[in-house]
Amino acid sequence: MDPVTKIALDVGSSSLRVMMGQLDKSSNHLTVQEIDRVAHQPQQVDGQFRWDLERLTTFVSQSLTRLKQEYPTISSVGVDTWGVDYVVVNQHGRPLKPAVSYRDPRGGRGRAELKELVSEPDQYQITGILPQDINTIYQLRADREALQEITQDHDAKALLLPDFFSNLCAAAWAGVPAESLYIDGASRCISSTTGLLQHGNLAWAPALVKATGIPSMILPPVRDELQVAAEVDGLQVIRAGSHDTACAEFALPGESPRCLVSSGSWCVVSITLDKPLISQSAYTLGVTNEAAVGGGFRASLNLTGWWLLQQLGPEIRERFGDLSWGEIAERAAASATDSPVFEVQTEEAQQLISTLPGLLKHLGFAGDQDEDYWQAIRALVVSMAHSHATSLRQLAQLCDFTGAIYLVGGGSHNRLYTETMEQILGTKLTKISAEGSTMGNLLAQYTVAGFDKSAIKVEFI
Hints:
The chain has a domain at 4-247 and 436-460: Nucleotidyltransferase, domain 5 (2-Layer Sandwich), CATH 3.30.420. Helix 13 packs across helix 16 (370-399). It is α/β, with parallel strands linked by helices. The model has no long low-confidence stretch (mean pLDDT 94). The two termini are 20 Å apart. The protein is built from 18 helices and 19 strands.
């Protein structure tokens, strides 16, 4: 019996991976393997932080074209990405302007302008999304003049990244890249990260769209998850969760409420609830309410994560050789155990520790011995664990949550990090898989195909 084969395109802010799932229908055993991968990062171009869209689109097109030749029975594909960023395309799906990263400072300018038109507490009550510089709504406000100009000459749409890459997958499978716009609409989970979606329904908030100053027709209609977005030459393109952390949450067993720590470049601590948490206490704590794949909301705290260490990688390897992240983690864990704990969530602290010498100086290490470096790296990991565990404890108290805590993402591989969190929380963390987003993406696709996700046993090979 041939396996039911599906593809998950897992687009992270440092790598894009093509993952293949093959389900044995007789045993419900799902094997998952990485088929292709490309590293990427935003670059400074003409004064902006931009994603290398040409590199990524070329990679996806070539990868899907090759997969069609090698695995013609692939039945569907789903895409998950990080939130907030978008691409403006014409009626053929071709980008009309550079894809600018959430790390670009223009979001802060847009936020300052927009709060003069709609107060931030009012924005929060409408959308349930915490105002942050990175939010799409502020990017759009900052880009409004360019978008107004584009729509004068083009039938343009602002596609959030999962929908952009879904369209690219459909075009590549059809063998006519960027010749048609196959994807009609914006996926609900990723749309909920924008700060423009009314919580509880599938509609953009008119008052907020007006405040951005963008042409309203540039926003596609919002579509729910767990649906077929397009079908091309035998391949279904599935709305499989769209947002990476929403996909990771969908991979968890059981029903709501449930708690997830998705520990990657960013750390998202979330508890899934039936209704958004939009009280004054939630707003003060910094809770943002993003859509869950199966319905409801993920009351979340978006925290700075492993990019704090990732940015130091080149300097660490220049000094100590070409170490893997696992080797770096072990060397740090083996250094002195009495690590100082310091603030890692403020912009001021992040600037101070953005280089290896800066980290050493911030902690008072001389840097004349190798051990100083490893103690400093250990202190950074321990401080992240303290920050994430403390935030989780505050969120759990607000939600009156006492259940199991699930851990996914690259952070789950770091023994020092997980053990420190467990010590602070006073409970064990249940590790689902470092590949939570991929697992949830694939499980969503199999759910749409009529399979019971709770019966599927997943193995990564």
